[in-house]
């Protein structure tokens, strides 16, 4: 049976395909996928293309043996799986950001924070003993402070271009993020040799 890897669509997909090709796997089916979602990689791997949170769901539930997903989604979802390798790509940071020049910590009123990552935001402000209202936003979180919905955002910042082009700035960095290889706990036992040899190959080809 092929090892099934759930792969986060988009940015991480390209880097993962690059890594698999460097390792000698034929990724032509993924490169030429059209609208297909399950694709062969070489003879021994099958790749499943999914949204980040769903990568974790599929791995947790054992329908995929392995997954490639950002540390941001791992921290937010806090699931039951093994985190095996820091793949070193998909590097960015969690940050608290808002309108340029705003003094976020000025005053005593409860701040509203917009984010795609409510758990990350909650934990960050709990550590500061700060009471905040959190509003979940699904994408382009930068809009929230611009429209007056929130005082700030907790989001991922890669190049900083989105913030800059929208008159926003980082108030505080929270933690670094990169892509990780994760594994289903049962697959790790039942397919240990295959997974370990894949990890060894990966480690030879990263960084
Ligand atoms: C992410 C993030 C920022 C942007 C940061 O959004 O939420 O908006 O990338 O990148 P930058 O610092 O290089 O500008 P993504 O592109 O994933 O889209 P989304 O906001 O619609 O989820």
Search tags:
five-stranded mixed β-sheet, D-Maltodextrin-Binding Protein, domain 2, 207 residues, 35% helix, alpha/beta, 31% strand, single chain, 11 strands, binds 1-O-pyrophosphono-5-O-phosphono-alpha-D-ribofuranose
Poorly predicted regions = none
If you average the pLDDT, what whole number results?
97
Percentage beta strand? 25-35%
CATH C-level category of the largest domain:
Alpha Beta
Tell me the major beta sheet.
6 strands, mixed
The CATH architecture assignment of the largest domain turns out to be: 3-Layer(aba) Sandwich
Strand order of the largest sheet: 2-3-1-4-11-5
Number of domains: 2
Helix/strand order: EHHEEHEHEEEHEHEHEEHH
Walk me through this protein's architecture.
This protein is an alpha/beta fold and 207 residues long. The chain has 2 domains: 3-90 and 178-205, D-Maltodextrin-Binding Protein, domain 2 (3-Layer(aba) Sandwich), CATH 3.40.190.10; 92-175, D-Maltodextrin-Binding Protein, domain 2 (3-Layer(aba) Sandwich), CATH 3.40.190. It contains 9 helices and 11 strands. The chain has helices spanning 11-22, 28-31, 52-60, 71-77, 118-127, 143-147, 161-165, 185-190, 192-205, and strands at residues 3-8, 38-41, 45-50, 66-70, 82-86, 92-99, 111-115, 132-136, 152-157, 168-177, 179-183. A 6-stranded mixed sheet has the order 2-3-1-4-11-5, sandwiched between helices. A 5-stranded mixed sheet has the order 8-7-9-6-10. The model has no long low-confidence stretch (mean pLDDT 97). The protein binds 1-O-pyrophosphono-5-O-phosphono-alpha-D-ribofuranose. 1-O-pyrophosphono-5-O-phosphono-alpha-D-ribofuranose (PRP) binds at residues 139-142, 155-162.
């Amino acid at each position: 049976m092929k090892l099934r890897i759930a792969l986060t669509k988009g940015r991480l997909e390209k880097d993962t395909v690059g890594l698999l090709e460097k390792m000698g796997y034929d990724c032509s089916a993924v490169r030429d996928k059209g609208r297909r979602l399950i694709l062969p990689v070489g003879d021994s791997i099958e790749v499943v293309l999914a949204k980040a949170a769903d990568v974790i769901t599929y791995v947790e539930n054992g329908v995929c043996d392995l997954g490639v997903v950002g540390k941001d989604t791992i921290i937010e979802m806090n699931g039951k799986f093994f985190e095996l390798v820091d793949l070193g790509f998909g590097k960015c940071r969690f940050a608290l950001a808002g309108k340029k020049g705003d003094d976020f910590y000025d005053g005593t009123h409860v701040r509203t924070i917009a984010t795609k990552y409510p758990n990350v935001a909650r934990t960050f402000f709990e550590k500061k003993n700060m009471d905040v209202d959190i509003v979940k936003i699904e994408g382009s979180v930068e809009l929230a402070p611009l429209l007056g919905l929130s005082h700030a955002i907790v989001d991922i910042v890669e190049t900083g271009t989105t913030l800059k082009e929208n008159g926003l700035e980082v108030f505080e960095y929270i933690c670094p993020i990169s892509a990780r290889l994760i594994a289903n706990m049962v697959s790790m036992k039942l397919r240990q040799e295959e997974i370990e040899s894949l990890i060894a190959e990966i480690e030879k080809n990263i960084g």
